[in-house]
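Hi there, hope your week has been kind to you so far. Please have a think about how the structure follows from the sequence. I've dropped the whole record in just underneath, so have a look:

_____
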Amino acid sequence: MLARLLRFGLTGLANSAVGWAVIFGGLWAGMSGAAANAAGFGVGLVMSFTLNRRFVFGVTGAVRGREVAKFLAAFAIAYSVNLAVLLAAQGVFGKDSALAQLPAIAAYVVIFFLLSQFVVFRPAPSQ
């Protein structure tokens, strides 16, 4: 499981780098901030799904709509937890403190990994 968690972390770093590149590239090309952000997150989600599915969790075969829906739901849950933890941490560290981001990011990573492992990319039961 530790190796899988390491691959999950590497996937997250690669995903973030590509997402940021798309955002900043979009801004450089004249896109609005909102459009560049949406493009970056869109590319990032597709990349995250693809890398997590194959590289992290070893799932092969055709992509199913239910699998994509579970992935998007897991992302939404993890991001919601991230925001809740961030707001709580800002109460402790201050509204603009970078330290408040640390527990929020940690919560996101843990929740998203667990949901990906046990819900999204869980192997089908043998029949």
